[in-house]
Amino acid sequence: MRQLVLLALVGLGAQLVDGALGMAYGVTSTTLLLAIGTNPAAASATVHLAEIGTTLVSGLAHWRFGNVDWKVVAKIGIPGAVGAFAGATFLSGLSTETAAPVMSIILLSLGLYILVRFTSFGLPKHNLGKPLRKRFLAPLGLVAGFVDSTGGGGWGPVGTPAILASGRLEPRKTIGSIDTSEFLVAVAASIGFFVGLGSEGIDAGWVFALLIGGVIAAPIAAWLVRHVPPRVLGSAVGGIIILTNTRTLLRSDWIDASDGVRNIFYIVIFLVWAAALAYSIRAYLAERREERAATSDKETEPEGVA
User: Transmembrane region positions (predicted)?
Assistant: First the structure.
């Protein structure tokens, strides 16, 4: 019972982050399931089954708050579903010994990308309002869907920064559209895992616990997306993902590092993570001061010159 409660809290926390940042539910949940020794394919299957419910509720909540661009959902979601099904069947065919470090490498790469992307650049806003073309969204969806299934998460970490980097869609609609289209990805990935695995290794209680936590958090996250600074949240989540998956890799048969080597890696990661968080917080506060100063200057400008 205690384990189910903890999984529900994991699902709640992961969905709060995902709904506010447009990424990290799958990456965070799968990382924690791997950390407690779950089979990689079963971990990804468990998370994707839970995501069918959480993404549906999250999408409805984002729609109610006006955070969804349905054209983007269609253009990226359908190719994403194709990629997710392919990735699920691919992962199901790998042995546990091969899949665990492979998945950790994918998750670690995504964590590094999230940390660097949001710490260094924040959220770009150039080209806002220009249309996002199918020739950009379709390949993006295909790749993001494949990575999502094989890595146990990746739809948001691949899709959200790519669309934000284009500067063509405002952040809240980027996050809402990615979260909503993820429903298609979760359904396709789950079908792929059932084709490849059946129900082997999938614990219905774990799925339900993750689902309950995510469903509770989804409407809260859809509201928070207008208020939580994504730059700071991205740095925080990226650090967690990097630390956890570095631990998995260092303990794997591929590396099997000694305790001393592991501790050195952990200390370095903690220091870099702390520096990234501090930088993101300072950058966010500086941006807020600049915005307030610009608003104040506009209010004090004379109405006209004779």
Answer: 72-92, 98-116, 136-155, 175-197, 204-225, 264-285
